[in-house]
């Protein structure tokens, strides 16, 4: 009752404002202006009306240590989750994309190939391979219903896509079931149709239907509110091509000759016992990785089936190497990278850029520097043009020495419906999303 | 005793009465709260950049919504601004939809009939973005609740079509008002709704298009960079250009002309008496630079002007070393024809032949450059 009456008071005041005009409430509105200005400053002058309605860490709460870490909203009973899909504009319809079907997989591949993420200058566009998509979207326990497409009703053409895959992600001491949201793509011809928000809501709804209430995702833009912001670094393996296609630039005082010499790598890895990971290594790699990842604040909670799926080498998708001690045959170190080529737009000589992305690396006996250098060597042998890495985990300590240069891209990491009390340093993050 | 009873009775009646009164008040309160949240959610505080002609009305602005009711309500009914605001995140994940030159795909253009974005879409999109943006700014012009509801309903029709949601409970005034406004428009076609939405915005803010993003299609105002990044997902990063530091290289104009492939300037330089074998501080001649950058024509010019084909830089490397390391086969062949020495060793003891990693058959067998 008391609560209500205080609301009554404020409601009355406000309705007075509305009816009586503006003379009385200068104070109120200026107070409001101040509040707004403050919010503007903390949100870097940007408004995120969509995200402000979502259970995500809000800019206004940054630094508020009174808010507990953990879920922002409790789960609702499954019976209260909206049962029907969200409405799409009338020309479109939802579809579930069965990635086992060659035809559907092709459609998804082509949609992404022609419409997915580009660089700022529109010189490159990600070109995830079909094998990669199947790998990325079908981990242990995946839900087909989370592979969501939108088709034009008349032509049945696939025009938009968004996905989630289940993952167990540990935040400090809590292991939380989450969805990793990725591959949000709307056809270039439909960019003003406002499909993205409804797609995000729809994937959220379908995640909720599986009784999962948290999600992890990344973005190149700042939204409310990153748990950490990482920097991309790039190690040239084929500097001449990278320069020719505009991925990197040759300084006026630098020669191509010297640049090529600078990035030259030995022909084969230096560490004795360095070899490709095999199926029989899964238990040892799982132990190694679990132990290593336990030191990070946010990291996946991998079991053996996850390791087998995510880290066992798959041609042109993921490569993993390890160091097996020649004496004890113990597995002491591990490194991995995934293959993500990009289309080169509008270059006469080259159409594809082959990039390796550092995935999970564990060093216990072999120094990380040497381990990563051996990784670069095998990536070079496999004809990659560039090796990319984020400054997550312990990467930063070796990047400069291995001749990585900073990239122009930042990657922000987010959790949905899970508050972390303070932002992490990139080196406290043990999670790599594809 | 009966006095006692009547006293009790009147107390009881009083209690019941005050209970009812309290209930009534709380009902009124809920009603007002809901109204307020209409105001807040559906853009009460739409505001515009100051314009002299504009008649300013109430500067009301949305009251700061606190209290559990309001918060709950906010969750329950989707805020109109929220939906509209999110439009700005929409242009994902890369920019210019305007030039479709990139479309190398096998898309059949007929398939896009009625599906792809039209000009109306774009203006509508700009209008919703304008409404959302202006709601976020600080000096606000109030839009009447009627207009807000109208905009809301048109927006819903344009984006979701006819109202098929169940009617919200009578106690949820905001939700109900919004639902009714939407419902009332029946099966209005989305295009009509978009057009009407634009009309309402234009009526409320006659100048809204003046500052709009549609302008940028003509001008070369390099508008939101963030357009190239999607609302979520990975990021394409390339090497950031770093100014070389600590590179103390000293070079002359003639080296720069050779490097940049500027034949005319290069010739002028030579004709004015600059030595064609001029060294930079690393001992490189213009020929080293021309070969390094792959300028065939400049290489020809320099050699025709008696450039030393076997000139060594400070590391003992000749232009042919450069051609081989930089994998420039045509140039390498040409240099060899011009008597470049395939077996001249640099300071590391490597000849061009040693350094050759490319699969150039003519390089492997001595004396067979043809």
UniProtKB/TrEMBL annotation, chain A:
One of its GO terms (molecular function) is glycylpeptide N-tetradecanoyltransferase activity. Residues 71-230 form the Glycylpeptide N-tetradecanoyltransferase N-terminal domain. It holds the Pfam family NMT. PROSITE patterns: NMT_1, NMT_2. The keyword Oxidoreductase does not apply. InterPro entries: Acyl_CoA_acyltransferase (IPR016181), NMT (IPR000903), NMT_C (IPR022677), NMT_CS (IPR022678), NMT_N (IPR022676). Residues 1-31, 60-83 are annotated as: Disordered. It catalyses: N-terminal glycyl-[protein] + tetradecanoyl-CoA = N-tetradecanoylglycyl-[protein] + CoA + H(+). Its EC number is 2.3.1.97. Adds a myristoyl group to the N-terminal glycine residue of certain cellular proteins. Belongs to the NMT family. This is Glycylpeptide N-tetradecanoyltransferase. It comes from Dipteronia sinensis. The lineage of its organism: Eukaryota, Viridiplantae, Streptophyta, Embryophyta, Tracheophyta.
TrEMBL record, chain B:
Residues 50-113, 213-235, 343-370 are annotated as: Disordered. Residues 69-78, 217-228, 343-356 have a biased composition (Basic and acidic residues). The keyword Transmembrane helix applies. Gene3D superfamilies: 1.20.80.10, Ankyrin repeat-containing domain. The keyword Transferase does not apply. Keywords: ANK repeat, Lipid-binding, Membrane, Repeat, Transmembrane, Transmembrane helix. ANK repeats lie at residues 282-314, 315-347. The chain crosses the membrane at residues 6-31. GO terms for molecular function: fatty-acyl-CoA binding. Residues 96-113 have a biased composition (Acidic residues). Signal peptide: none annotated. Residues 120-210 form the ACB domain. Pfam families: ACBP, Ank_2. Belongs to the ACBP family. PANTHER family: ACYL-COA-BINDING DOMAIN-CONTAINING PROTEIN 6. This is ACB domain-containing protein.
């Amino acid at each position: 009752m008391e609560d209500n009456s205080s609301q009554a008071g404020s409601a009355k005041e406000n309705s007075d404002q509305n009816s009586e005009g503006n003379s009385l409430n200068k104070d109120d509105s200026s107070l409001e202006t101040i509040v707004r200005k403050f919010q503007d400053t903390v949100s870097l002058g940007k408004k995120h009306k969509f995200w402000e309605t979502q259970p995500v860490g809000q800019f206004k709460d940054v630094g508020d240590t009174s808010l507990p870490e953990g879920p922002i909203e409790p789960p609702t009973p499954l019976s209260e989750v909206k049962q029907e899909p969200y409405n799409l504009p009338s020309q479109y319809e939802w579809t579930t994309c069965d990635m086992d079907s060659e035809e559907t997989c092709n459609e998804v591949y082509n949609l992404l190939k022609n419409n997915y993420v580009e660089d700022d200058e529109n010189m490159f566009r990600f070109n995830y391979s079909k094998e990669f998509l199947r790998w990325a979207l079908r981990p242990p326990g995946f839900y087909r219903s989370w592979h969501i497409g939108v088709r034009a009703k008349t032509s049945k053409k696939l025009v938009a896509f968004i996905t989630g895959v289940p993952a167990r992600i540990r935040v400090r001491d809590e292991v939380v079931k989450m969805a990793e949201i990725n591959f949000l793509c709307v056809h270039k011809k439909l960019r003003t149709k406002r499909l993205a928000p409804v797609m995000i809501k729809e994937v959220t709804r379908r995640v909720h239907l599986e009784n999962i209430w948290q999600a992890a995702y990344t973005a190149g833009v700042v939204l409310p509110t990153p748990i950490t912001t990482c920097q991309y670094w790039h190690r040239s393996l084929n500097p001449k091509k990278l320069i020719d296609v505009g991925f990197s630039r040759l300084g006026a005082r630098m020669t191509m000759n010297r640049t090529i010499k600078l990035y030259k790598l030995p022909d084969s890895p230096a560490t004795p016992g360095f070899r490709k990971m095999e199926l029989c290594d899964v238990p040892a790699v799982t132990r190694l990785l679990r132990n290593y990842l336990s030191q990070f604040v946010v990291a996946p909670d991998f079991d053996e089936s996850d390791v087998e799926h995510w880290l066992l080498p798959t041609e042109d998708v993921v490569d993993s190497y390890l160091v097996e001690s020649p004496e004890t045959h113990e597995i002491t170190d591990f490194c991995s990278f995934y293959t993500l080529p990009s289309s080169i737009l509008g270059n006469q000589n080259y159409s594809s850029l082959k990039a390796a992305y550092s995935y999970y690396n564990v060093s216990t006996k072999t120094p990380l520097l040497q381990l990563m250098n051996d990784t670069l060597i095998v990536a070079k042998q496999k004809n990659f043009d560039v090796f990319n890495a984020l400054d997550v985990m312990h990467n930063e300590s070796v990047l400069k020495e291995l001749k990585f240069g900073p990239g122009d891209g930042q990657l922000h990491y987010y959790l949905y419906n899970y508050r972390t009390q303070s932002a992490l340093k990139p080196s406290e993050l043990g999670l790599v999303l594809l | 005793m009966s006095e006692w009873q009547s006293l009790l009775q009147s107390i009881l009646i009083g209690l019941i009465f005050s209970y009812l009164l309290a209930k009534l008040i709380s009902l009124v309160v809920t009603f007002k709260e809901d109204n307020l949240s209409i105001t807040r959610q559906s853009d009460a505080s739409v505001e515009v950049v100051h314009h002299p002609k504009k008649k300013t009305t109430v500067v009301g602005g949305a009251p700061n919504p606190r209290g559990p009711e309001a918060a709950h309500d906010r969750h329950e009914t989707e805020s109109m601004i929220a939906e509209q605001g999110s439009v700005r995140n929409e242009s994902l994940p890369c920019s210019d939809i305007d030039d479709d030159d990139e479309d190398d795909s096998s898309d059949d253009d007929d398939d896009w009939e009625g599906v792809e974005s039209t000009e109306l879409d774009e203006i509508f999109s700009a209008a919703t973005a304008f409404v959302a943006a202006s709601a976020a700014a600080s000096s606000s012009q109030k839009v009447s609740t009627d207009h807000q509801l109208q905009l809301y309903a048109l927006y819903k029709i344009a984006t979701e079509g006819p109202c098929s949601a169940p009617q919200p409970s009578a106690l949820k005034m905001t939700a109900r008002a919004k639902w009714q406004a939407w419902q009332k428009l029946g099966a209005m076609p989305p295009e009509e709704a978009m057009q009407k939405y634009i009309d309402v915005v234009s009526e409320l803010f006659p100048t809204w298009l003046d500052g709009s993003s549609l302008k940028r299609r003509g001008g070369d105002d390099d508008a939101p960079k963030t357009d190239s990044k999607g609302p979520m997902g990975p990021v394409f990063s390339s090497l950031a250009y770093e100014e070389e530091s600590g590179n103390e290289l000293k070079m002359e104009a003639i080296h720069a002309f050779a490097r940049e492939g500027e034949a005319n300037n290069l010739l002028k330089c030579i004709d004015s008496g600059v030595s064609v074998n001029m060294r930079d501080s690393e001992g490189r001649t213009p020929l080293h630079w021309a070969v390094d950058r792959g300028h065939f024509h400049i290489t020809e010019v320099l050699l025709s002007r008696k450039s030393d084909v076997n000139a060594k830089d400070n590391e003992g490397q000749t232009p042919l070393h450069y051609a081989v390391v930089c994998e420039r086969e045509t140039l390498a062949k040409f240099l060899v024809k011009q008597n470049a020495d395939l077996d001249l060793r640099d300071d590391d003891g490597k000849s061009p032949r040693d350094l050759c990693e490319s699969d150039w058959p003519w390089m492997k067998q001595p004396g067979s450059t043809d």
